[in-house]
Specification:
CATH class of the largest domain: Alpha Beta
Shape: elongated
Structural class: alpha/beta
Strand content: 5-15%
Number of strands: 27
Strand order of the largest sheet: 12-11-13-14-15-18-19-20
Helix content: 25-40%
CATH architecture of the largest domain: 3-Layer(aba) Sandwich
CATH topology of the largest domain: Rossmann fold
Oligomer: single chain
Number of helices: 23
Distance between the termini: 137 Å
Length: 856
Amino acid sequence: MHLLTFLPLLYHVGILTLVYIQTSNFTSSATSAGKVCILQNSFEPGFIAEGDYIIAGIFPLHYNQEMPDLNCTYKPPPVKCNGHRFDPRAFRWAQTMRLAVEEVNQNLELLPNYTLGYKIFDSCAYPLTGQRAAMAVLNGMSEDDSPMCSGASPLLAVIGESGSAQSIVVSRILQPFQIPMISYFSSCACFTDRTKYPTFFRVIPNDDYQVKAIAQLLVRFNWTWVGVVRGDHEYGRFAVQGLMRELQGTSVCVAYQEMIPLLYNQQRALEIISLARVVVVFSAEGEMTPFLRDYMKQNITGIQWVASEAWVTASVFTGKEYYPYLGGTVGFGIRKGYISRLSNYLETVNPQRYPNNMLVKELWEALYGCSPSLSSASQLPPCSGQESPLKQHSAYLNTSSPRVAYNVYKAVYAIAHSLHNLLMCQPGSGPFKNQSCAQSDNVLPWQYYLQEVKFIIAGEEVNFDLKGDSIPYYDIINWQRGTSGNIEFVNVGLFDGTKPAGEELVIQEDMIMWAGDQSEVPVSVCSASCLPGSRKAVRRGEPVCCFDCVPLSLNLSITKCTFCPEDFWSNKDRTACIAKKVEFLAYDSLGIALTVTSVVGACLTIVVLAVFFYHRNTAIVRINNSELSFFILFALTLCFLCSLVFIGEPTFWSCMLRHTVFSITFSLCISCILGKTLVVLAAFTATRPGENIMKWLGPKQQRAIIFSCTLVQVVICGAWLIDAHPYPSRNTKYERSKIILECSVGSSLAFWCVLGYIGLQACLCFVLAFLARKLPGNFNEAKFITFSMLIFCAVWLAFIPAYISSPGNYADAVESFAILASSFGLLFCLFAPKCYIILLKPEKNTKQHLMGKEKK
């Protein structure tokens, strides 16, 4: 597309470089008008090199400019950059681009048989000058010699700009021509809008990640009262908007927001008075330099600066004179890289090698304070131009940890790799119409492969997402005093945007030196926390971080105090909420004692069962109904083991099993004892003449009695679980300082029903055994059943008041103890006498002796 097509548009935005000179005859032909197309103004590049494909670089080699007098009475001179504001750091970036292009041209594997050329311009860190650079970029290799009124621009891509405001202007000028642009330092979040910036890419992270990192930093160090200063451009405006968005919902308040004017004004800058100890700054080094110098004149110290990536690694601030004011600065810097040949390459640039280059001359004047040109009108003393580099020239020669320069380096290689992929296209597999490829002798700017480019450089993967952004990484930089007294940039952490939210920030706090040479984190609050006995009173019209501490009055309403959450309680001074202690019947000393007792009881029961089984054919086992004895021993084993369910943290299943298993096993045990009691009573009464009731208590009838009595308890438990089953609960009301984990019974009626049914069975068994206690026989089992039921009832009658009055986990301990005590009572009363005869008195283990009929 021809540049003349856009002349009306460019005229309205103030960047017209070509015009038609009208002749005196307004009606002259178009042909004669075309012959007088002349160059009205020029903007020559600082460095130029020919090549098969041309890329442009735009760098802020100066960070101030002289505005011409536009009074419309004479032709205004062109805008000039102020030589006293030369930036050696940006000059290093431009030389990095030249080095990268030379490396690509020397690489036999990358772009074989093709070369890259370049045009490098100075934007003066100002949008209007950036516009002129963009227009000059489009006009060809040399403005004086190129056919500007016909032909297409040979430009392939643009590397730039540094500031976001300048990049917005340049990107919009390049957009109609579909010329891609890769920025090395423009981090504004606004560029993610692909509808406005479809050809914009960058090798620096999006500011959305930076403001997220800064917000996390402020919250981490509890800086609740901070100031925010920004530059007068899109970068600063979008960054502050993003930071305010990230700080919503946090404890951080912004004390003020101030702006450094674009056309710097000392009086306006001094009005930005720091009311906060911590100040966040989104600005470029060019704007910060005069701003900070004016603050240094006012001798303002003790400010903890939080720097954005735009100036956190600016070498211009590394001098000794800056440390008292900027020492301790913390900020997020671009990830550093490594460029092996850069240091040697920078040392080859000198006025003798480039005698006609004004930028090299200005570099020498800035570094050495002398003028290498004899014809110069400069007031500086003359020098040879072959001076050796000095250590204090770190703004230009510091290549130990290149960051922005490394971004420029990656941008050049991204263009080279994308062009290489385009030129290596095979016909029939291309991305264009009919799977065609681009013509190598006529590559159009829109035929770039940048969106899909992916390569490895110095071990780092470089690619772009759908919005043109690169992978977000930041180094956390701390400004510390070096051995020579200068400021050194020390890496104290990392922000990795690829990690999950909340885990991106990794900081080595013990390595940080804060403002004022302090090792402790500075405090920045609007109001200090109120002491005990006082309350906060928010100041009207001020942020919530600003308040007064008012003494508490005696009649202060409790509604003005803050209640602790349910799981917390106040400390002794009533100044903070502390977590309550969680308590349940755990496997501590009490829990272990109950567990051991339960296991010992179960083992004893199993031993008795083994003894009975081994001696199952002896008289004492057979006379006392061996089948019912085995049933009772089995039930007692379960009774001992069910107490284990009461130990440990209550869960859904343990709560349902506790009372149901306990009630069913005890009901089974008492049902067996009841059946045995009925058999004993029937056996002794059946010996009387005319009575024969044993036929009603045979083995089948006994099993039916046990099953029926147990089934009633099973039905009650089933109804309990269906209607309102027990569940785990957190009791926070019994004791203020504790949370008692317990099992709520769900239905109190069902709980007392199961206990009542067991009690009813025990009472019935006790009455029947008591009636049969004086029946004849040396081994009347009714006596032992009477004693066992007496102990059983005594234990559980004592259990009820003890259970109700026991606090916390002791309630479960009381119930577990009652289960074990009653089980041991049944085991010893029913089976200890029998085991004594079986094991120690085998001569009494006869039917005659047991019936009292042995011969004397």
